[in-house]
Design brief:
This protein has one domain: Immunoglobulin-like. It contains no helices and 10 strands. The strands form 2 sheets. Strands 1-2-3-4-8 form a 5-stranded antiparallel beta sheet, with no helix packed on it. It starts with a strand and ends in a 9-residue tail after the last strand.
């Protein structure tokens, strides 16, 4: 089963957990497509955010692991970034952080990037365009949907 590795929703009621709004959950989201495992770990950046000016910033660290038998190259990316109001922005471009890495079998590539929003929460999802180096075949590797949450998020129970 792929999807978010969040430690389970039951943790929310655990009395051992601090109810502090500054808690930083250690959530990691994962998916696997054609032996390419993509794991994402987002983090809210309090020091780069300014809630009074509607500026909220997150970093996200992505690890792309080649669990297959042939080298692959990451050619391009497509991100769908949605804020708390439902406004979606699409970002696409060659490679990631200025690179189009070739990932050998059993190896991984990791990078960290950032995302600013005008709302205190949102989510991202996307895909990488990959190339099988040996065959020249192009395919997509899914990036798991992941949450962008901040301590300033207003949660309501309906």
């Amino acid at each position: 089963m792929s999807g978010p590795n969040t430690g389970g929703m039951h943790d929310l009621g655990d009395p051992a957990r601090s109810p502090s709004r500054k808690a930083k959950p250690d959530f990691r989201y994962e998916s696997e497509t054609r032996s390419i495992k993509v794991a994402v770990k987002p983090a809210y950046l309090d020091d780069q955010s300014d809630p009074e000016d509607d500026r909220y910033v997150w970093s996200y660290t992505v690890t792309i692991e080649n669990k297959g038998a042939e080298p692959v190259q990451l050619m391009s990316r497509l991100w769908n970034i949605t804020d708390a109001t439902g406004r979606t922005q699409q970002v696409r471009g060659p490679g990631v952080v200025g690179a189009q890495p070739v990932i050998a079998p059993g190896e991984s590539f990791q990078y960290t990037s950032g995302c600013p929003l005008e709302t205190s929460s949102g989510h991202m999802t996307g895909r990488y365009q990959m190339l099988s180096v040996a065959s020249g075949e192009s395919f997509e590797a899914e990036i798991p949907a992941f949450l962008l949450e901040s301590p300033y998020e207003r949660r309501q129970i309906h």
